[in-house]
Write a structure and sequence with these properties.
Blueprint lengths: L5 E2 L19 E5 L9 H5 L5 E4 L12 E4 L9 H5 L5 E5 H11 L6 E2 L4 H9 L1
Bound molecules: iron/sulfur cluster (SF4) (2 copies).
Amino acid sequence: MSDIKIEDKNHSARFKPVRKGKKPPKLLAVVHQSGCTGCEVCIAGCPVDSIELVPGPDPLNPGYQQMVEIDLARCIGCQNCSQDCPWETISMYQHDDAFIAWGNETLASKLYIDPPPVEEKKDEEIA
Ligand code: SF4
Ligand code: SF4
């Protein structure tokens, strides 16, 4: 994954309630996607609904080998998912370290995308 990512403003997660509180959480959860089986156990235990299923790598069969991704913008660091995952493939990181870990451990993201090229940005600003 590239270092620079932005929140996908078109993903349905952006319409969910935003995280409350003024301070960011001390810890954030990151999925090591290479070890995720897509069992969805973690999704059931997340109190803020910040874990999303990500399609598998084959665009012709997106339901195969699905995995999950955690929305760092909404995670409150409660640690439920890291304790619940039967495959021990979610780890808690200090807030700033989590963004580095996310870049290293995320194989496929639906929540965060590459920023548009500079030319596109200019077009958007002009419109
Ligand atoms: S740490 Fe808590 S809030 Fe964050 S993704 Fe896991 S279950 Fe959800
Ligand atoms: S509980 Fe673990 S293996 Fe199951 S979907 Fe969540 S991260 Fe993946």
